Amino acid sequence: MLRRCARPSKEEFWDSLGGLLLALFLLLLGVWGPPLLLLMFIKALWG
User: Fold this and answer.
1) Phi then psi for 31, rounded to 5 degrees?
2) CA distance 30 to 23
C-alpha cells in the first residue's frame, strides 16, 4: 500500500475530494444562500 507508485493516486484522491467538497459547498450555498440574503435584507430594512 505504501509503495512509491501509490503517490499519484493519493494526489488524485485529494483532488477528487476537493472537487466533491467544492460541489457540496456550492450546493449548500445554492440552498441556503437566497434565504440568508433575504433575511439580511429584511434586517437591513428594519434596522
Assistant:
1) -80, -45
2) 10
pLDDT in tens, 6-42: 556 888 888 899 999 999 999 998 998 899 999 999 9
* 9 vs 24: CA distance, rounded Å: 22
pTM above 0.70, yes or no: no
CA–CA distance, 36 with 15 (Å, rounded to integer): 30
The DSSP secondary structure of 1-47, one letter per residue, reads ---GGGHHHHHHHHHHHHHHHHHHHHHHHHHHHHHHHHHHHHHHHH-
Distance (Å, whole) CA 22 – CA 44: 30
